[in-house]
Amino acid sequence: MLETFNSLMMGFAVAFDPKVFMYAVGGCIIGTLVGMMPGLGPLAGISLLLPATFGLNPIIAIVLLAGVYYGAMYGGSTTSILMRIPGEAASVMTCVDGYAMTQNGRAGPALAIAAIGSFFAGTVGVIGLMLMAPTLASFALRFGPPEYTALLLMGLFVLAYMSGGSMLKTLAMAFFGLLLGMIGIDVMSGYTRFSFGMVELGDGVGIVPVAVGLFGISEILMTAGQAEPPKVQRPKLRELIPSREEFRLSLGPIVRGSLLGFAIGIIPGSAHVISSFVSYGVERRLSKHPERFGKGAIEGVAGPESANNSAATGAFVPMLALGIPTGPVTAVMIAAIMVHGILPGPMLIQQQPDLFWGFVASMYVGNLVLLILNLPMVGLFVNLLRIPYAYLYPCVLAFCILGCYSVSNSVTDVWIMLAMGAIGYGLRKFGFDLAPVALGLVLGPMLELSLRQSLALSGGTYGIFLERPIALTMFVLALVLLAFALKPVIFKGKDWRAGVGLDDPPPG
Amino acid sequence: MKTFALKLRCAGAAVAALLACQGIAVAQNYPVKPLRMVVPFAPGGPNDILGRMVGQKLTETWGQPVVVENRGGAGGTVGLDAASRMPGDGYTVAMGGSSNLALAPSLYAKLAYDPQKDFTPIINVAVVPYALAVNPTVPAKNIKELITVAGRKAGYLSYGSSGVGSMSSLAAEMLKSMSKTDIVHVPYKGTAPALTDVVSGHIDMMLADLAVIKPHADNGRLRVIGVTGLKRSVAAPAVPTLAESGLPGYELSPWFGVVAPAGVPRDIVSRLNGAIGASLKAQDVVQRLASLGYEPLGGTAEQFAATIKADTAKFANIVRTAGIKPQP
């Protein structure tokens, strides 16, 4: 314990070195700006910046990239809350209630709670990382394809709690998302599916263009279709601060979201995206007033934002402890230090203590910097809403196109985004909820891949899911969840859904 | 009418002369504007590292910025397809590789570009050696023992790859067909997740870049059985080649090289070749490549063209023997 403390102190000495500190702050600022760019999320942010770090020393490089990563996570929530434009899959859920809060004139509290939740979650994540990294990492390694399948299946059942509208419409949208996920090269056979001969569709439809189109572009179209232009908001200073009630409601979701996000984050793979969806589902299920969700419930911002951030930190556990990338973001980070000839892995702590502890300490510093940077900025960001929509929305649209293009220099992505905007507009007119589409698209390809990998391993026998304890436990849990979700349907009993009212106008 | 025809002809001659002059002027002044380097993969991998290194060296040599453009997707074919449709004026180059320049034609019946017709080869840059690694619980210390273990029962062992039709799956299929074993293929999306599952023991073995395998081998989480090249790798001289240790004739040396869209004038090709070739001998480049375990190649543009041609035929043969059907 004392040793850890001493090492951490050494880490802080590294992190507060003026040069390193400057880069950490710079990374946070760049990240926030990148994240606020519609369509550009953490992955795009650090991929774009990666080449710039090749000339820096490795500690600075990784501290800078980590800053960009956190900053972009946070910046993404800003555009989600203010304009309903998700920067990445994880902030889709924030769009729903965050933007509803903005429309109710509570943009300030939503942003503030997102910042505070992120800070808390980041801190929980760093402490977990520091104290338990080696233990957790070896546990995380027990997650092979069968365990992954079970985990994703549990994620899929969260759908039941995600939308307040009719179950049929929710399922229809989820299936639409799953179908979108079928597009592209089938990893098992190498054949392309539903690509219509377009090479660019070979890798499938990206979540970012779809999410930005469905949520952001459709919102712009909806606004344009209103008979009267929406009133420009003039937020007062008093309205920027969350009320006592809002703090009270957010506390539970922040704590639960942080723990849940960290647990999901340490599992290798891209499962961390589902942490925000799961957190939203959990909060809605636990809430005494689930009908408020989708109409500006602060719990719907606090939970997913915290989960999202601690999952981001959790993802560093296997990376730092074992040198294994948990997902695309950590893979880029590993590339960044490998370029300097440093090989991540269990030896990293002994061979490069200043790099390891400097990185851990700079995560504390980065989280704090983001909080200090962003809380005062809430007022500034909210004032963006003062811009009349006639000027604001064309600019937003231009930035959406720019951001979407720059992720992989692909015009096809821009077309996908615009088409999804039109589809999203149509679906919302018919009262469909769009979040299940995003969940379907995220889960579909991962679930298919891990299911088929498991079956390839077992030679086609489903018994593989019953032989492995972790997978079996999760399957049982998933079945219990399913039973709870089905109970009201079968017994026609009183469901929380009954209180929501199926004929309510859809949120957003 | 006659005068008009004459005028036309004169004008034509003048334009031709002008164009010819310009052609010479282009070569003499080249490069007069920034170059573009298309990297057909996402940042961070060997293709990107080499592309940026070449770009940086060209900038240092010529004082013209080289803008690196990452266009990933579909195993590096999306980016090369885009590059093939750019002008062949020497201001666009791309970092190709044995996968998208030599293997792709046998895998995709409808590949959007013809690697040999749509590109001007410039120079082969480096070999990125592959190695065969197994999880330490697999009871085999060398390739002979591994073949025995795999031969116990069809599907006794499993191998991971970065995708169907990737270099890593081709390498394993080659191993299977040469050793007459049946090993289950479990494809992943990219090298990293596949390697993770070999380290954790969910799958048994994998062929991948030596550079990404080595750190795990050094701390005992993976056991390296052999390298795939004809010679041992400088980065791991203790590791035998697969050919010398029990699988004679097995050879796979994935390379990465610079190509340009078709129609680049000869003298510009030689200027590019000369500049990149010289940079591959520079001290910092040699050191950097050595730290990653990559082996610099160089050579003439003609030699590179011959390599592309030879490997295309070789891979087509492997694909046919392994029974992989090209995509319709």
Strand content of chain A: under 5%
CATH H level of the largest domain in chain B: which superfamily? Answer: Bordetella uptake gene, domain 1
State the CATH architecture of the largest domain in chain B: 3-Layer(aba) Sandwich
Radius of gyration of chain A: 22 Å
Count of runs of 4 or more consecutive helical residues of chain B: 11
Average predicted confidence as pLDDT of chain B: 86
Strand order of the largest sheet of chain A: 1-2
Annotate the secondary structure layout:
The complex is a heterodimer of chains A (508) and B (328).
Chain A: H1 2-15, H2 18-36, H3 42-53, H4 58-83, H5 92-103, H6 107-140, H7 145-157, H8 167-182, E1 184-185, E2 192-193, H9 207-224, H10 244-265, H11 274-286, H12 299-314, H13 316-322, H14 328-338, H15 348-351, H16 353-382, H17 389-408, H18 411-429, H19 435-458, H20 464-467, H21 469-491, H22 496-500
Antiparallel strand pairs in A: 1-2
Helix pairs in contact in A: 1-16, 2-4, 2-16, 3-4, 3-14, 4-5, 4-6, 4-12, 4-14, 4-16, 5-6, 5-12, 6-10, 6-12, 6-13, 6-16, 7-19, 7-21, 8-19, 9-17, 9-18, 10-11, 10-12, 11-12, 17-18
Chain B: H1 2-29, E1 35-39, H2 46-62, E2 66-70, H3 77-84, E3 92-97, H4 98-107, E4 119-127, E5 130-134, H5 143-151, E6 158-161, H6 167-179, E7 184-187, H7 191-199, E8 205-209, H8 210-218, E9 223-227, E10 255-261, H9 266-279, H10 283-292, E11 295-296, H11 301-322
Parallel strand pairs in B: 1-2, 1-3, 6-7, 6-8
Antiparallel strand pairs in B: 3-10, 4-10, 4-11, 5-8, 5-9
Helix pairs in contact in B: 4-11, 6-11
Task: Describe what you observe in this structure.
- The complex is a heterodimer of chains A (508) and B (328).
- With 508 residues, chain A is mostly helical.
- Chain A has one domain (2-500).
- Helices cover 71% and strands 1% of the residues of chain A.
- Chain A contains 22 helices and two strands.
- Chain A has helices at residues 2-15, 18-36, 42-53, 58-83, 92-103, 107-140, 145-157, 167-182, 207-224, 244-265, 274-286, 299-314, 316-322, 328-338, 348-351, 353-382, 389-408, 411-429, 435-458, 464-467, 469-491, 496-500, and strands at residues 184-185, 192-193.
- Chain A has a two-stranded antiparallel sheet with strand order 1-2.
- Chain A is globular and about 65 Å long.
- The model of chain B is unreliable at 18-23 (pLDDT under 50).
- Chain B has two domains: 35-126 and 256-322, 3-Layer(aba) Sandwich (D-Maltodextrin-Binding Protein, domain 2); 130-227, 3-Layer(aba) Sandwich (D-Maltodextrin-Binding Protein, domain 2).
- A six-stranded mixed β-sheet of chain B has the order 2-1-3-10-4-11, with helices on both faces. In chain B, strands 7-6-8-5-9 form a five-stranded mixed β-sheet.
- With 328 residues, chain B is α/β, with parallel strands linked by helices.
- In chain B, strand 6, helix 6 (167-179) and strand 7 form a beta-alpha-beta unit.
- Chain B is globular, with a radius of gyration of 23 Å.
- The chains are: A mainly alpha (508), B alpha/beta (328).
- At the A-B interface, helix 3, helix 14 and helix 19 of A face helix 2, strand 2, helix 3, strand 7 and helix 7 of B.
